[in-house]
Amino acid sequence: MLDIGGISKRFGQVRALDHVTFTVQPGELFGFVGSNGAGKTTTMRIVLGVLTSDGGEVRWKGRPIDADVRRRIGYMPEERGLYPKMKVGEQLEYLARLHGLDAADARASVERWTSRLGVEARIRDEVQKLSLGNQQRVQLCAALVHDPEVLVLDEPFSGLDPVAVEVMSTVLREKADTGVPVIFSSHQLDLVERLCDRVGIISAGRMVAAGTVDELRTGGAERIDVSGPPPGWADGLAGVRVVESGPHGTRVELDGASDQDVLRAAVAAGPVHSFAPHRPPLTELYRDVVAAPAVTEEES
Fold first, then answer.
1. Region of 133 on the Ramachandran plot (φ > 0 left; ψ -120 to 50 alpha; else beta)
2. How many whole angstroms separate alpha carbon 300 and alpha carbon 221?
3. Tell me, what's the pLDDT at 293?
4. CA distances from 100 to 66, 77, 108, 112, 231 (A)
5. CA separation for the pair 89, 100 (Å, rounded)
6. 12, 73, 117, 256 — which has fewest CB within 10 A?
7. Which helix (H) or strand (E) holds 257?
8. In the chain, what percentage of residues exceed pLDDT 90?
9. What percent of the chain has pLDDT over 70?
10. What's the whole-model pTM score?
11. pLDDT tens-digit map of 127-163
């Protein structure tokens, strides 16, 4: 298990991380989401040992992160981290050797991953001559070429076309299925929701929510989507707050009323074509969580 335990970090007067705590289980895809500057990249760099935290600790298999552990982590930075004038194949083989593979195993791994990620035809090209999407594929090859025990990926889907997104998604799922913990950040929340086992939301350096998407849906007031009755049918209904209303339907939030109360009122107002609990997507959950009032240090 990758265990991030209460890590904090300041840059001068700026508090970048404030007691950030979460775990990534073996075989789990963990989506790490937050706005720009929320603390995602700083957290990942501390996991890698690139930065030192001011407090807290990161542990892998119960051990603090050290040079030996870092050799077994596959890391993909948000910024391009490859040598632009070096050829793809030579560069990947060099990186594999740095992580401890011998020459034969390194070459075999380069062939396997460039083929798997669709860049085998560019293996003799300089990185700078590739499209941004192909550079991103090569960057993932670099994270995978040494058969890592942990994957830490910062915005791995940035700049990819839909086909490449599917290829990369499949590869990450396959790695997780072998028992590898995979943590990645992304602003593509629909993709995170579809792909990840659990999600962590960070805002202003604090973890504000973590769990499966279904778990993140719990805790708020129940909402119901109703279509059929004319607009305005729920206005003034006791124990109900109208969230949205329009020609395609009405979304109400229960505030004391039951779903059966709402159903009876809807049927009385006109024919009901659909009546179902509202299951908010991750995009909506993220917006609600991040927009919630911040907890001050005195309150925490």
1. alpha
2. 24
3. 56
4. 16, 21, 14, 17, 66
5. 17
6. 12
7. none
8. 75
9. 97
10. 0.83
11. 999 998 899 999 999 999 999 999 999 999 988 889 8
Q: Which domains does the chain have, with CATH numbers?
A: 2-217 (3.40.50.300), 223-279 (no CATH)
| Encoded tokens for 264 | 């009876």
Range 200-221 average pLDDT: 89
14 and 57 Cβ atoms separated by less than 8 Å:
no
- Tokens read off for 160: 């990819």
**What sign has the CA pseudo-torsion 163, 165, 167, 170?**
negative
Residues 6 or more apart in contact with residue 98 via CB below 8 angstroms: none
132-144 helix and 88-98 helix, angle to the nearest 10 degrees: 30
- Kindly give, in sequence order, each residue whose CB lies less than 8 Å from that of residue 107, ignoring residues fewer than 6 positions away: 93
Place of tokens 């930065």: 51
Tokens encoding 267: 């049927």
